From TrEMBL:
Residues 7-28, 44-62 have a biased composition (Low complexity). It comes from Actinomadura gamaensis. Residues 29-43 have a biased composition (Basic and acidic residues). This is Universal stress protein. Residues 1-80 are annotated as: Disordered. It holds the Pfam family Usp. PANTHER family: STRESS RESPONSE PROTEIN NHAX, UNIVERSAL STRESS PROTEIN UP12. InterPro entries: Rossmann-like_a/b/a_fold, Universal_stress_UspA, UspA. Residues 89-228, 257-379 form the UspA domain. It comes from the Bacteria. Belongs to the universal stress protein A family. CDD domains: USP-like.
Amino acid sequence: MTDATSAAKDGGTNAAKKAAKTTANSTDKPTDKPTDKPTDKPGAKAAAKTAAKPSAKNAPKPAGKDPAKSAAAEGGTGAGTARLEDGLRVLVGYSPDERGDDALALGSLAARTAGSPLVVANVHPPSWPSRGPGSVDAEWLAYLREQSAAALAQAADRLAEMKHPKRGVEYRTLAHRGSGRGLLEVARESGANLVVVGSAPRGRRDRFAIGSTADQLLHGSPIPVMLAPRGYAEDAPKKFERLSVAYFRRRDVQAPLDAVATLAAALGLPVRLITLVLRPSGLPARFRGADDVVQRQFDQAEKDLEHARGLLAERGVRDVETEAVQGAGITKALGGVEMRPGEVLATMSSHEGPLRKVFLGESSGKIVRASGVPVLVLPRAHAR
């Protein structure tokens, strides 16, 4: 495109001018708007009718807008970022596989516990601009819509098996190039303030592996992100038992504690604050006074935990326990912490990340990978 355009600009041959014009007309511009509309070429209308009536007979009807029409452009006229203080509204990113079932089991439990609405969304790839005379693009789009409708039908069946009430459940589809960014668009449109996703397929059992969807959410979501370990749906608890928080005192800790207090109240859970005091390993562990340094850090951690307990008490959370744990590294220290079957572990975003966004740092990333229970990642500064 650059060579042809330069030739046209410099008054080159007619062939160069024609090449530049052709290239400019056929460029796939990297816009965020999903082209979820069939072309006007012959055969497109028939394919569009096929997309409007997917073969999944039990496909649930989306509440509110039609899912095809709700595939709006990113940053479009959405409902904006909903606040936790206005009531919990759970969004589950669903795919018709194990990770989708894990996310659905966790999201359903959260919604049932809080008595809140549940939004189930499936994000499929968008169509690509087609300049040819055929209707291949429209047929491909029809196929994607049919697969998305079938996925939501499967989600409805799974929710029925969990005895999740049909009332208050909304189903949505969206065409987007990024599944994580697409879920954030659905969250803006539906007013969701908690998004739940499952582990990547390569993950270990009872652990969470970060895939492309989770990676997009964990590096830019304005709302808390809840992660379901692999295999969670197979033995999901009947209820949540406690909200544990991996706590490290810092200047911007007020907003995460606000979110913890709101979520604990919404889910009716006691809170446990945990600080991991890391012992040096290898050669530094042999230095003189190393044990004294660790002990001073441990004593300071207990003081910080008491301070945080007081901050939560000011926010109306009275049932708070604290625990400081030593270990050689985050994985070993967290492995020494007792976790209940219905535990949820919350962690704060990196203090180097953007304000009002989830941003997984080095420590929080290790916590996510080492945890054997669902992890809730809080934005650095939650919108009040």
